[in-house]
Amino acid sequence: MMNIEMLQHGTNLTPFYGNDALINAYNAAQDEDIITLSPGIFNACNINKGITVRGAGMMTDTATGVTRTLISGDFVIEIFDSTKSVAFEGLYFNGTVFMDTTWNPQFSKCYINGLADVTYSNSRIYNCNIVHCIIPAIDADKFQNAHFYNSVVCDPNYYTTFTDGECVFDHCIIKANCNNYWGSSAISRIYSTNSILVPRDTSSTMSTQPDNTTLHHQYCIGITHHEGQFFHPVDYAEGNHLYNFSEFNQVFVGFDFDVTIFADYHLLPGVVATYPGSDGTQIGIYGGSMPFDPRILNPNIGHITVGGQTNDQGQLPVTIEVVNE
């Protein structure tokens, strides 16, 4: 299959081909342009323009024949102008997405292998929205006003905590360390509702009581492998701060790093009925007004057929299928 990209500037469409199609299209793009990528593998490039990049999806589904759009390699996003924004949808990033000072980044229906800020003391990430994403590794201590919706987010960085109150999660699965190197609880510095909280360290039997309060986590379920290890608030109040489940493996299947075999994060029916979220739907990524769905709803590039020979004008015929699930 040929990799192809369409650069949309106003009503004008310009095609680019090959593994460097994203790089070439980006070099030609202007602020507010849209880059649409076919399924396939594309080399990454640094981004400092206010553009939108769309792919065919973050998952490969052999049953339906849908192939993911993979962005290969690490890259850096820098958007210094607060009036601009950059958006990504339906993409699988196999490297780390670094962000220096960046305004208004948006990620939707993306698998992001690593999401981090470059280690400059004055770097900040402002007004970030993440929807229907899977992020195995995130370093979010310099996020300011970040919102996560119906996403799976892990924080394996032992030395880093989220900035207090700057990361807000709704209907998410959050896997975080109980205590970091400095003795501060990472999970106590974020705010979450209707979410499932899971400890990063599943082997330790050490009993800890992070400073979780009903102000920080409301209508959440804490899953532990060892009783008392995680999410056991002193000021627990039944009704808005849900139970700490111990050895409740049926609730949480486990994070699967192979995106082609995505784990089932549905809660058991009995748990859903007994412990509904604040909106009456189930806690976790399948609840709320926009349950997790990795499929792309916008039109995207599907199959591409290239003719075997040139026509009378010396042109090679290319047929591009546009699909909309």
Number of domains: 1
Distance between the termini: 20 Å
The residue fraction in helices comes out at under 10%
Q: What is the residue-mean pLDDT, rounded to a whole number?
A: 75
What characterizes the major β-sheet? 17 strands, mixed
What's the shape?
Answer: globular
Strand content: 35-45%
- The string of secondary-structure elements, in order, is EEHEEEEEEEEEEEEEEEEEEEEEHEE
- Using DSSP, what is the number of strands? 25
Which blocks of ≥5 consecutive residues have pLDDT under 50? 179-185, 204-214, 227-236, 252-259
Class by SSE composition: mainly beta
> From the alpha-carbon coordinates, what is the Rg to the nearest angstrom?
21 Å
General description of the model:
It is a single chain. The protein has 325 residues and is mainly β. It has one domain (65-323). Helix content is 4%, strand content 36%. The chain is built from two helices and 25 strands. The protein has helices at residues 21-28, 269-274, and strands spanning 4-9, 12-17, 34-37, 40-43, 52-54, 69-72, 75-79, 86-89, 92-103, 105-108, 111-117, 125-131, 134-135, 138-139, 143-149, 152-155, 167-170, 173-176, 191-193, 196-199, 217-218, 221-224, 244-246, 300-306, 318-323. The protein has a 17-stranded mixed beta sheet that branches. A six-stranded parallel beta sheet has the order 13-16-18-20-22-23, with no helix packed on it. Strand 1 (4-9) and strand 2 form a beta hairpin. The two termini are 20 Å apart. The model is unreliable at 179-185, 204-214, 227-236 and 252-259 (pLDDT under 50).
